[in-house]
Amino acid sequence: MFDQPIVMIDFETTGMSPVMGDRITEVAALRIADGKIVDRFVSLVNCGVRVPSFITQLTGITQRMVDTAPCVSKVVPELLRFIGNDALSAHNASFDERFLQAESRQLGLQPGHERLICSLKLSRRIFPGMHSYKLSALSSSLGIRFQGSAHRAEADAEVSAQLLMHIGDHLGKTYGVPRIAPALLDRVNRVSAAKVPGMLRKEFS
Predict the structure, then answer these.
(1) How confident is the model at residue 148 (pLDDT cuts 50, 70, 90)?
(2) Is pLDDT above 90 for 150?
(3) How confident is the model over 61-104, as pLDDT tens digits?
(4) DSSP E strands: which ranges in the chain?
(5) How far is Cα 178 from Cα 35, in angstroms, rounded to an integer?
(6) Residue 55 has what pLDDT?
(7) Which residues pair with 28 in a beta bridge?
């Protein structure tokens, strides 16, 4: 399906922006290779911050869970080693990459992934006209089932990985693409939905 591994990542956080002081509370990274998930890195994260009550209500992640979790100075270096220089993907990828970059900078580290692929943008281009592109609604529309609780990192990363593989399968069947390069997905992300069919037909005609 994909000709190189892709790591699907998902963070749970204390808020929407690291610029505003928000931090990560949980991470899941799942490596996709040969059309399946072949490896995973999952951890709660202790950044020494307060977990807002609305975040606990949304995710089920409590202050005690975070307080007893591995320290961010241990988790993030292990996460970066896990990712290596593989392509990175996430649903609404700019959100997760902002937190990855911010937490890495605080430790004097630099992520090494070679490119970023957004499954949200891909879905809008490959499946135009869906009523919603939120992960839960989109996965339901495409018949992809959550294996755990939504708004927990591993469950969200798992369904996002299944979504990305669904996209890969669709491209293979629709355009006769034998093996899909992450670079191609990156290029699809950069054009409008209306131009995608023509671009892919030209690419694989």
Answers:
(1) low
(2) no
(3) 999 999 999 999 999 999 999 999 999 999 999 999 999 999 99
(4) 6-13, 24-33, 36-44, 87-90, 116-118
(5) 12
(6) 97
(7) 10, 42
Cα gap 124→114, rounded to integer Å: 23
Residue 125, SS3 per DSSP? helix
CA distances from 170 to 134, 143, 166, 175, 183 (A): 19, 13, 6, 8, 17
Contact indicator for 29, 108 with CB cutoff of 8 Å: no
Rounded Cα–Cα distance for residues 37 and 59 (Å): 24
3-state helix, strand, coil in the chain (%, to 5): 50, 20, 35
Phi/psi at 178 (5° precision): -75, -45
- pLDDT at residue 74, rounded to an integer: 98
Measure the CA–CA gap between 97 and 118, rounded to whole angstroms. 10
Would you place residue 179 in the very low, low, confident or very high pLDDT band (cuts 50, 70, 90)? confident
